[in-house]
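Dear colleague,

Thank you for sharing your sequence with our group. We've completed the structure prediction you requested, and as agreed, I am returning the results in plain text so they can be pasted directly into your records. Please verify that the sequence below matches your submission; if there's any discrepancy, let me know and we will rerun it promptly.
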Amino acid sequence: MAFLEFRPRQTLYEFCPVESFRKLIASKVLWCTDLASANDPRELKLGFQHVLDAMKFVRKNEYLGHAGDFLEQLIAEMTTGITRQQFFCACFSLQNDTLPMWREYGDNHGGVAIGFRPTAIISMPGRIQKVRYLNATVPKNFGS
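Please find the predicted structure tokens below.
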């Protein structure tokens, strides 16, 4: 399965408390969060559920009979795979100075914003994805 990876061309910023910055500098390790224990683990499940819903919709409406058996198999394999995997992330911002980021991640305006060169981000192992938030009305109309 191919994923469109984000290739940053500008500095990416991580907002954090001063103590987290000190630990990062001392260890030279960027910590990632287990998405299953994130503040809203539904984010991971919701996206996956939308993909499954779309595949089931296509199976039911466009690939009837044996022609759609491959979709059922793919859905089963994806469902099994997602339950056996762990997903981790580190979040960055394209903006270096934004109040919501300072408030939520920058220790309620008392932390720091660390800038990472694009080459540093690209050289890290892992996949880089750019988040695009859905319009609030999308889930209501999804699959119809």
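Summary note from our side: Helices lie at 18-27, 42-61, 69-84, 99-104, 118-123, 138-141.

Kind regards,
the structure core
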